[in-house]
Amino acid sequence: MARIEIYTTPTCPYCIAAKKLLTQKGASFEEISVAGDAQGRAAMTERAGGRTTVPQIFIDGRHVGGCDDLYALDGNGGLDPLLAAKA
């Protein structure tokens, strides 16, 4: 399975929706909370090409984007192949 990292905050509805989709797909993921963590958020922002919102999702090191991006990727059939890839 692919290595999935998702930067989140606890009350973010988009984070919850993204995690729900990944869970429905049977994918395990590493959740990295940036709530109250200025250094963690700065690292996420740099890694995500300047995007400051959560969630920010990475699959095998590739930046997928946020929740809408994840659902769009799933809608066009691109998510399952990424999830099935070997890390």
UniProtKB/TrEMBL annotation:
Domain (Glutaredoxin) ranges: 4-64
Family, similarity comment: Belongs to the glutaredoxin family.
Annotated gene: grxC
Protein species of origin: Methylocystis parvus
Cited function: Has a glutathione-disulfide oxidoreductase activity in the presence of NADPH and glutathione reductase. Reduces low molecular weight disulfides and proteins.
Cross-referenced NCBIfam families: GRX_bact, PRK10638.1
Pfam families noted in UniProt: Glutaredoxin
Gene Ontology CC annotation, any one: cytoplasm
Regions that span the bilayer: none
An annotated GO BP: cellular response to oxidative stress
Keyword Disulfide bond attributed: yes
Domain of life: Bacteria
Keywords: Cytoplasm, Disulfide bond, Electron transport, Redox-active center, Transport
Gene Ontology terms for molecular function: glutathione disulfide oxidoreductase activity
Protein name listed in UniProt: Glutaredoxin
